[in-house]
Amino acid sequence: MAKLKRKDYEEELEKLQVELNVMARWLQHTGKRIVVLFEGRDTAGKGGAISAIADCLSPRQCHVIALSKPTEREAGQWYFQRYVPHLPSAGEISLFDRSWYNRAGVEKVMGFATAAQVAAFLKQAPVFERQLVDDGILLFKYWLAVDQDKQEERFAERLLDPVKRWKLSPIDVKAREKYADYGRARDAMFRATHHRWAPWHVVDFNDQKRGRLNLIRHLLDQLPDCAVPEPQIQFPPLKGKPGKERYAGPVKPIKGRY
Fold first, then answer.
1. Alpha-carbon distance 53 to 20, whole Å?
2. 76-121 tens-digit pLDDT
3. What CA–CA distance (Å, rounded) separates 171 from 42?
4. Distance CA 161, CA 54 (A)
5. What would the pLDDT profile of 147-158 be if each residue is shown by its tens digit?
6. What is the greatest pairwise CA distance in the chain?
7. Most C-beta atoms within 10 A of its C-beta, which of 11, 77, 145, 239?
8. Residue 2 pLDDT > 90, yes or no?
9. Secondary structure of residue 206 in the 3-state scheme
10. Rg of the chain's alpha carbons, rounded to an integer?
11. Which of 60, 53, 19 is nearest to 36 (CA)?
12. What mean pLDDT is reported for the chain?
């Protein structure tokens, strides 16, 4: 399949982002709550997919959650506890850049969790998610798939690009040797946690632009008719000439270099 041209991608993305705003108004109107989990291999494109959704929505309504390594206190809590405060309230959407499924993926493969902890997680996760769904949360779980050759290209790009180098970590270097192990962990996770009330959806992200479009299209297609009346806002003409910024105190604008 030919690579999607940037112009075509941007045109399609704009159409989808208009629909996302319709969805956001529907959430506010109905008080519904949405949780979207973005899982997948390193470099798959989770951050870019999340940005494509969040950048066109109000940050007061759309929340991006990307938790760091658990603190010592969090490590002593019930495993799901640190994620619960980030669940949405009425009319909100929460986008998890990795989620509680860390335990079934990186923690399992890299030895950060014991076999007993992983087994307990795989047993508890469907129960936890069933409770979320029974309470009315619309839960969507996406796995972003990428082949190893493409993953290697993206790792190399991050290494050479000083703007993207922050995305690399020692864990990423070790993970390169465990591509097959991650695949086996993923399959075990799917077998234990793919249920009618919370199914997994796999999206091909070897082409990230196509992947973003397909993921957003799929997400929107899972929702009911989101059309609600759009509030009409009127802008009457100003009563005088437009004002200019003026500063009477000691603070002045910086002298721009560009």
1. 7
2. 999 999 999 999 999 999 999 999 999 999 999 999 999 999 999 9
3. 10
4. 24
5. 999 999 999 999
6. 72
7. 145
8. no
9. coil
10. 22
11. 53
12. 95
Q: Smallest Cα–Cα separation from 155: which of 142, 135, 143, 172?
A: 172
The pTM (predicted TM-score) of the whole model is 0.93
**CATH (residue range 6-71+82-221):** 3.40.50.300
Q: Is 133 exposed, middle or buried (0-12, 13-18, 19+ CB in 10 A)?
A: middle
Domain residue spans of the chain: 6-71+82-221
| Distance, CA of 8 to CA of 56 (rounded, Å) | 18
Run of H or E including 58: none
* Angle at alpha carbon of residue 206, lines to 205 and 209, rounded to 5°: 60
Question: What are the tens digits of pLDDT across the range 174-194?
Answer: 888 899 999 999 999 999 999
